[in-house]
CHAD domain-containing protein
Amino acid sequence: METELKLNVAQRDLDKVRQHALLAGLSPASPDELELADTYYDTPKLDLWHNGLTLRVRASDGTWVQTVKTAAGGSPALHQRGEWECALPGPTPDPAALVRQVKAKRIAELLGSPHIAAQLRPVFNNTTRRTRWNIELPDGQLVECVLDAGDLHVGKRNAAIGELELEMKKGDPTRLFELALALHEQIPLRIANDSKAARGYALLDRKAPAAVKATPVRLHKKMRLEDALQCIGLNCLAQLESNVTGVLAQSVESLHQMRVGLRRLRALLNMFEDLAPLPADMHDSIEWLSGALGATRDWDVLAGATLPAIGGDDVTQLVAVAEQRARDLHRDMLQTLHQPRYTQVILQLNGWFHGRGWREGLADKSPLYRRVDDAMVPLLRKARQRLRKRIGALDENDLAARHRVRIAAKKARYAAEFFSDLLPAKPTKRYVRTLSALQDKLGHLNDLAVARGLLEQLTAPDLLRGTTYARGYIAAALELESHQLRPALDAVARLKMTGS
């Protein structure tokens, strides 16, 4: 199992990496220089890729090496995956030669299948100039640092490669984030959410990146609370990071899911703020990213949902203007995600969760060291009580108070979902379902309130008739729907969740 951190390097900065004083200072010898030619093989139906495998034959200095890798596990930032390789007498792949190395039955059967072997064909290739340092950290830990520069070729299409890979050979993988941050101070780097193989397959089928929803958090009762914090935090980061490729392709749904991942992360950090406070600089960067994602999502909702629901000829022009404003903000998001600050906060957050950065100064009797099935109870209770208190004090016509109820409902729902593996299944599903229904109603009211504010920004004379009509419609809808909240509020206030 290899553990590595991949970072993208702009073509203009490749030589700066090769000449970086930090790498030279940590390496006991000059770096190796290699010329590599890789060919990736699969069947016409891409059976290997669809089963989470890649098969590569690498040619270098008259030798051939065959390598099979599994899809990356862990967070998208810190890749952990199985890898098996063997020498070949020539360029023709022989996956069956790797079967004895593979313990997983499903993978072994796939590689040993004569049917698969008979259908293998080249699907893409890349040529690479590789610079490799063997780094010795001051405390004796060993890191292989590899800089790859070249081109990925898929038919007549190609993509430039500029990739820095840090692989932990001996020691704590958390140190990879520290090393990356040190390099990032002088050379702007970006998290590489996709491997070369993933980029090649993306060029091959040319499909738009799919939005990635949250996956279930898997916990068990023997965990400590800090284990659960780490597991949930990395789950939230995985959703956030996995949608970056789609956001860079200006996908509305990918941006929405990236924002959901960040919202879940913020809810988690808020829940644990007394036990594991996040450093202030990371907190500020999270709020900065949240603001950029939120502004873009607001215009997406206005253009794609709120205005079309109003309808009418007077609104048609508003939809077109809102769509253009949303497209402009999606383009701005590209700049946001390419800013050094984004890379910095993602590296910092990964390092904080992987390295359990909350431990510094932590008391020996901290609840974080207790078993999760016991220590989670006060956290869940606090989330429920806060929601009930806000519901009890709510004036349905008070926009700010309504928004506070919405935030509290969201945090209570996320808390239940985070710890659902440790809670009674049926009551928890009912609790989450009821909270979701309230969230939908409050979310719709919030969308209407946000739309009213966005429409005030559309001041062109030719839009006046449309904005006047839309604002009148929204005002009436807010008045009507705010008075229909009470049944949903009362249903949540009566809820109980056994086990917490």
Observations:
- The chain has a mean pLDDT of 92.
